[in-house]
Amino acid sequence: MFQVRVNTDFAAAHFLRDYHGKCENLHGHNYKVFAHVQGSSLDEGGMLLDFGELKTALREVCKTLDHTNLNDIAFFEQNPSAERIALFIYNKIIEKLPALKKTEDSTKAYLWAVDVFETDTNRARYIP
């Protein structure tokens, strides 16, 4: 099995409406995001996937979140947890690169996971 990973970052504010503690107050993070692709076969050029395609898609998605209040995005239902942010980013990458959606063909490259770090030590991962 081969894996490739690209990353980017964005800064955004949020609060967790159904949380009781300091995170229910408006605050911000400098998020780090990692997109992982895996598959068992390489193309004619010896690559699983062109890093540039994945990097471009990830950056475009994260640019839409950068310097926003995540609570203003309907998808998050007023609770933009790191888990929901990872799911959102996964879905948007698949919209941009539909060939990366996991199928029954286990040799094909697919978007395996999206990691969202709120801090260097706190990560949420979405795996479809």
Structure characterization notes:
- The structure is a single chain.
- This protein has 128 residues and is an alpha+beta fold.
- Helices cover 23% and strands 32% of the residues.
- Strands 1-2-3-4 form a four-stranded antiparallel β-sheet, covered by helices on one side.
- Strand 3 (110-119) and strand 4 (122-126) form a beta hairpin.
- Helix 1 (51-65) packs across helix 2.
- The protein is elongated, with a radius of gyration of 15 Å.
- 25% of the residues are buried.
- The model has no long low-confidence stretch (mean pLDDT 95).
Q: Please give the order of strands in the largest beta sheet.
A: 1-2-3-4
**Fraction in helix:** 10-25%
Q: What is the molecular shape? A: elongated
Low-confidence stretches: none
Q: How many DSSP E strands? A: 4
- Number of discrete helical segments: 2
Please give the radius of gyration in angstroms. 15 Å
Separation of termini? Answer: 17 Å
| Structural class category | alpha+beta
SS strand fraction: 25-35%
Major β-sheet annotation: 4 strands, antiparallel
